[in-house]
């Protein structure tokens, strides 16, 4: 089933995102993607995500090396009048995979179809996408690591030779029909590159890993999005939000929205000041590191129930009553990257820094030779 309508990219009238709210912006008014006057954003609506999403490569902030390589891919493809090679984007949630996957076809002026890996349960589900693909178009497959094996195998010849083999009938009447497809590009996105099978991974000519963002890049994203949301924010407030966004633009956007709510209530001009940001962050229980309640619960579970580890993912998930996938996708990447936990062959381990962060003294164990624990524990979370 086609989850999202195909849109025409390029510089013509089809240059709009698929779900942009109706109505244009006045000249000199807010940037494209803002809601029409009088129509507020509803954070529960994914229109919000769409409206803040960069539409062109030049609007994509940060990830300089990745963007530079994508620009080269696009320029070379355009110059040759070719079809872009298949591209795999991997990285933690909210980091810009869908953004890049939608920007690329728009830059190339080709059509885009969007499919979700888990929704493609059998080869027949993929068939309409493949037969609908116009020459040079992009098929974006989100969560590509969750494609069932049969669908993956069906996709291989489509990606390699733009051909599919359809089996008809069975027993003595069984036969296979070969169908030629138009050349097209698969852009796959995954939060778990490691879960992709080797044959699937090998079919991508280009592979790009998106990493957490620098605070300065998040500050820039927050500033630009504040303009789109028609709100004002001070530099220090933008910095405070940015440094507590776990290096993730989606979190920065969400915090911007939540602080904007507080600003509406607390500040005459509705400006997001440092005080407003501090109040909102405290209300949301986001600490100086950017950890949310659930992140701290993870650390405390690891320390209290498993003595700091090593503990297996399943066991931690069970203790927290949270699906293991949620821990692995949403919580662990930032804790790992911040050095608060380690993944060892025997399981997850809380580091000394984690103990200090939640205001505890690190236990002295043979493997815990760091002597710097005379440093007072950080009790203050805000
Ligand atoms: N490089 C960027 N510059 C500006 N804004 C960005 C950038 N990357 C992401 N964003 C913002 O963050 C939001 C979330 O990004 P996106 O949907 O692309 O993440 P994702 O990697 O696809 O996440 P998921 O794995 O959950 O699907 C976007 O709507 C956009 O507003
Ligand atoms: Mg996405």
UniProtKB/TrEMBL annotation:
Residues 1-49, 347-382 are annotated as: Disordered. Residues 83-216 form the AAA+ ATPase domain. ATP binds at residues 52-53, 94, 97-99, 160-162, 203, 213, 250. GO terms for cellular component: cytoplasm; Holliday junction resolvase complex. Residues 288-382 are annotated as: Head domain (RuvB-H). One of its GO terms (biological process) is DNA recombination. Residues 20-40 have a biased composition (Pro residues). Keywords: ATP-binding, Cytoplasm, DNA damage, DNA recombination, DNA repair, DNA-binding, Helicase, Hydrolase, Nucleotide-binding. Its EC number is 3.6.4.-. It is found in: Cytoplasm. GO terms for molecular function: ATP binding; ATP hydrolysis activity; four-way junction DNA binding; four-way junction helicase activity. It comes from the Bacteria. Belongs to the RuvB family. The RuvA-RuvB-RuvC complex processes Holliday junction (HJ) DNA during genetic recombination and DNA repair, while the RuvA-RuvB complex plays an important role in the rescue of blocked DNA replication forks via replication fork reversal (RFR). RuvA specifically binds to HJ cruciform DNA, conferring on it an open structure. The RuvB hexamer acts as an ATP-dependent pump, pulling dsDNA into and through the RuvAB complex. RuvB forms 2 homohexamers on either side of HJ DNA bound by 1 or 2 RuvA tetramers; 4 subunits per hexamer contact DNA at a time. Homohexamer. Forms an RuvA(8)-RuvB(12)-Holliday junction (HJ) complex. HJ DNA is sandwiched between 2 RuvA tetramers; dsDNA enters through RuvA and exits via RuvB. An RuvB hexamer assembles on each DNA strand where it exits the tetramer. Each RuvB hexamer is contacted by two RuvA subunits (via domain III) on 2 adjacent RuvB subunits; this complex drives branch migration. In the full resolvosome a probable DNA-RuvA(4)-RuvB(12)-RuvC(2) complex forms which resolves the HJ. This is Holliday junction branch migration complex subunit RuvB. The gene is ruvB_1.
């Amino acid at each position: 089933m086609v989850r999202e309508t195909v849109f025409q990219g390029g510089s013509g009238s089809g240059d709009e995102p698929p779900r942009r709210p109706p109505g244009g912006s006045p000249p000199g008014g807010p940037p494209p993607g803002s809601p029409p006057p009088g129509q507020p954003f509803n954070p529960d609506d994914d229109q919000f995500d769409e409206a803040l999403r960069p539409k062109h490569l030049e609007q994509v902030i940060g990830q300089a090396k990745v963007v530079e390589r994508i620009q080269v891919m696009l320029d070379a493809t355009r110059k040759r009048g070719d079809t872009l090679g298949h591209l795999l984007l991997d990285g933690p949630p909210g980091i810009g995979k869908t953004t890049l996957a939608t920007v690329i076809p728009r830059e190339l002026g080709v059509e885009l179809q969007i499919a979700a890996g888990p929704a493609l349960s059998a080869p027949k589900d993929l068939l309409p996408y493949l037969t609908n693909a116009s020459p040079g178009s992009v098929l974006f497959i989100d969560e590509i690591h969750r494609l069932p094996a049969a669908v993956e195998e069906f996709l291989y010849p489509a990606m390699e030779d733009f051909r599919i083999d359809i089996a008809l009938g069975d027993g003595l009447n069984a036969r296979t029909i070969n169908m030629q497809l138009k050349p097209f590009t698969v852009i796959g996105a995954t939060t778990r590159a490691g879960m992709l099978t080797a044959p699937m991974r090998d079919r991508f000519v280009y592979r790009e890993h998106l990493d957490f963002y620098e605070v300065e890049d998040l500050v820039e994203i927050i500033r630009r999005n504040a303009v789109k949301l028609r709100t004002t924010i001070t530099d220090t407030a933008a910095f405070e939000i940015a440094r507590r966004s776990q290096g993730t633009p989606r979190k920065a956007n969400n915090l911007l929205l939540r602080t904007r709510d507080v600003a509406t209530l607390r500040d005459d001009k509705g400006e997001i000041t440092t005080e407003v940001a501090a109040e909102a962050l405290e209300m949301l229980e986001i600490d100086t590191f950017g950890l949310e309640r659930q992140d701290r619960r993870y650390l405390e579970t690891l320390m209290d129930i498993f003595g700091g580890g090593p503990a297996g993912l399943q066991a931690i998930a069970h203790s927290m009553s949270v699906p293991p996938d949620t821990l692995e996708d949403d919580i662990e990447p930032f804790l790992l990257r911040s050095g608060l936990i380690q993944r060892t062959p025997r399981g997850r381990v809380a580091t000394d820094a984690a103990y200090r962060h939640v205001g505890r003294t690190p236990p002295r164990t043979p493997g815990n030779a760091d002597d710097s624990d005379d440093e007072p524990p950080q009790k203050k979370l805000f």
